[in-house]
Design a protein that fits this description.
It is built from twelve helices and 13 strands. It is α+β, with helices and mostly antiparallel strands and 387 residues long. A four-stranded mixed β-sheet has the order 1-8-9-10. Strand 12 and strand 13 form a beta hairpin. Helix 1 crosses helix 2 and helix 10 crosses helix 12. The protein starts with 5 loop residues before the first strand and ends in a 39-residue tail after the last helix.
Length: 387
């Protein structure tokens, strides 16, 4: 028996959350190498803690002076907004432990002779789309992201004084007949200056709920169900308050729990790693299928083996679970889309330095830019799926 009426919650975290600081730095490393050589191989993990950043991982690409990378790390921290006693772009200690990629991995991934380029790892990746928002994203994660993104924009412009970079949001929505009908609670926890109290924090933050969520979803929201810093003051935050690591916010990065996740993080990986590129391709397919009107929702899974070019399996699930429609869509995908690692990179133009901007506020539901960012959000293949 299907459950059609329920509450569902998703959360987001800001670019100043310690895990997101780590994601940003790791993606900066990816962009730096790809900007110098588009076939660079990068797998970079970052740890952030009190006034310390540690880079580790494997690289194959141009030689980049360690001091240059350290300076770029400082630029990331500065742009996010950290110049605090416990974490500052000026004096944080930054260690670089990046080293050459394993020759065993390179052997499996590289094209050679009659062998096409293989996947950079084994694994399974998911893509999802639904018609709950214009961006074809689940509503709770979409609005959770938007609250924090607008707060960050105003903070950086100097229009949100007293609010610091480390923030979290959480939106709970009531679904009736599998459609979101209203918001039942909102939680925002935000780092703030020691110069303002919690009443002032609430005064500053609550307007962003109304700016981010359509009024029809908020009409019956009980003011007592709006929680701003429910634990009390939040002055010590960011990497000084909690250790950050690359890849710990994979549900925030994707669909807020509305769809499965394959398990592999995105940030810090060049696009030969199918954890990243195939997840983007699966979203691209799912979004175009929903955009075509073929289904209100679409879930796609793609699986790979390390060193093997072709996907091991492709799975498509539609809202109505119509097997005939699924079969037709599978035939369209097989005929029109090359889902080998090379095919995905060429289709979505992924060998470009486009990844820093993905590191916060979600990899999906974003607008494609003229810089080549978020190509997987285009709906230019929707006509193919009109059945």
């Amino acid at each position: 028996m299907k459950i059609n009426n329920y509450l569902f919650t998703s959360e987001s975290v800001s670019e100043g959350h310690p895990d997101k600081v780590s994601d940003r730095i790791s993606d900066m490393v990816v962009d730096t190498y790809l900007s110098m050589d588009p076939v660079s191989r990068v797998a970079c993990e970052t740890l952030t803690t009190t006034n310390r950043v540690v880079l580790a991982g494997e690289i194959r690409g141009p030689k980049i002076n360690s001091e240059e990378l350290v300076n770029k790390v400082r630029e990331c921290i500065k742009d996010i907004g950290y110049d605090q006693e416990g974490f500052s772009w000026k004096n944080a200690k930054i260690e670089n432990h990046l080293h050459d990629q394993s020759s065993d991995i390179a052997m499996g991934v590289d094209s050679k002779g009659n062998k096409d380029e293989g996947a950079g790892d084994q694994g399974l990746m998911f893509g999802y789309a639904c018609n709950e928002t214009e961006e074809l994203m689940p509503a709770p994660i979409h609005y959770s992201h938007k609250i924090l993104r607008l707060m960050a924009d105003d903070r950086k412009k100097g229009n949100l004084k007293g609010i610091e970079p480390d923030n979290k949001s959480q939106v709970t929505m009531l679904y009736e007949n599998n459609k979101p009908v209203k918001v039942t609670s909102v939680v925002i926890s935000t780092q703030h200056s020691k110069d303002i109290n919690q009443d002032k924090v609430k005064e500053l933050v609550i307007p962003y709920i109304k700016k981010s969520i359509p009024s029809n979803f908020l009409e019956s929201l009980d003011p007592n169900e709006i929680y701003i810093n429910p634990t009390g003051q939040f002055i010590i935050g960011g990497p000084d308050g909690d250790t950050g690591l690359t890849g710990r916010k994979i549900i925030v990065d994707t669909y807020g729990g509305s769809a499965p996740h394959g398990g592999g993080a995105f940030s810090g990986k060049d696009p030969t790693k199918v954890d990243r590129s195939a997840a983007y391709a699966a979203r691209y397919l799912a979004k175009n299928i929903v955009s075509s009107g073929a289904s209100e929702k679409c879930l796609i899974q793609i699986a790979y083996a390390i060193g093997v070019s072709k996907p091991l399996s492709i799975f498509v699930k539609l809202a109505d679970e119509d097997e005939i429609k699924v079969k037709k869509i599978m035939e369209i995908i097989d005929k029109n889309f090359d889902l080998s690692p090379r095919g995905i990179r060429e289709m979505l133009k992924l060998n470009n330095p486009i990844y820093q901007v993905t590191s916060a506020y979600g990899h999906f539901g974003r607008k494609p830019t003229n810089k080549g960012e978020f190509t997987w959000e285009k709906t230019d293949k929707a006509d193919l799926f009109k059945l």
